[in-house]
Amino acid sequence: MASKYVVLAIYGAILVVHGLINSLPIQWLAWFGHLGAFWNAAGIFVLVILIPAVAKERASLEFIFTHFNSDNGMGIHSKAYILAMGLLMSQYSLIGYDASAHMTEETKNADRSGPAGLVTAVALSSAFGWIFLVALTSLMTEDIPSLLDPGNDAGGYAVAQALHGAFRRRYGSGAGALLCLGVVAVTTFLCGSACVTSNSRMGYAFSRDGAMPFSRFWYRVNKQEVPFNVVWLSVAVAFVMALTSLGSQVAFQAMLSVATVGAYIAYGLPILFRVTTARRSFVPGPFHLGKYGLLVGWVAVAWVALVTVLFSLPVAYPVAEDNFNYTPVFVGGVLLLSVGAWVLHARFWFQGPITNVDV
To answer: How far is CA 160 from CA 6, 152, 154, in A?
Structure first.
């Protein structure tokens, strides 16, 4: 298995490629977006058919939908608690709802295509993701603790080990599992590039409104109308975060917590204000939910509140220093710093989004 420094070097190289892709003209970036959408759809279609066809042994639907792995080595035996923890897996992947908003300034008919793209992406991701997960979990016929054992052929990666076992039993070799994982790896690579795109446009919007240090440098665009400076800022920040967490699991957990829980809180707060203080003053755009808007809004707020609590629960028992869930500590710290910065400084000069900027 590669050392952590080799992994960091590979990660750095991939980030550089992502930066180069995002430095291309918008037309090329759109092409990569289309490629990502096609690869995701085609990859899931192929794997959903291939995986059950290859597997000689498949788990029953009863096992897939009703079995709880209480022999998990984490000291968690309550089925309700395991279900609650399992819900969080979808929250790690169903994220980035704001990406459509970040790209609207480079989108035709943005007032309609932006929100329509968001709704479509969530609906398709939920449907096809569910089908893909059912196909993957149908392979979980082996002793589950053995799939998670760091000493197995896949180094403890359950999905990779399950794929390896299925191909080995069918063909006597686990090489086919590498092809399946290759499809997933390319999907992950394209998603990583899309993340840099989203982050750079978000950084550009913040700097355009004067809400970032050295804003005048970050909101500049090149001749191809690409925010080149903030693209490479996004790449640099991503690498520094990985470097910081290299020797500390706690630091990694902190960044993951803030990135996930913080994003959901950021999604939930505008919706909360929309259904409360701005209930009467809110002016809907051409694409809206009509009379169902308030109902959907309250459901969204309730769900965000629920997953925020779930993300803060202990992930192992008995709770000790090495398995303590620092999520509420770090997320609370970020919220405290953010609110403090607003109260003590930003509220005296920040006047809201700037609509006309000479870039």
So the answer is: 20, 10, 6
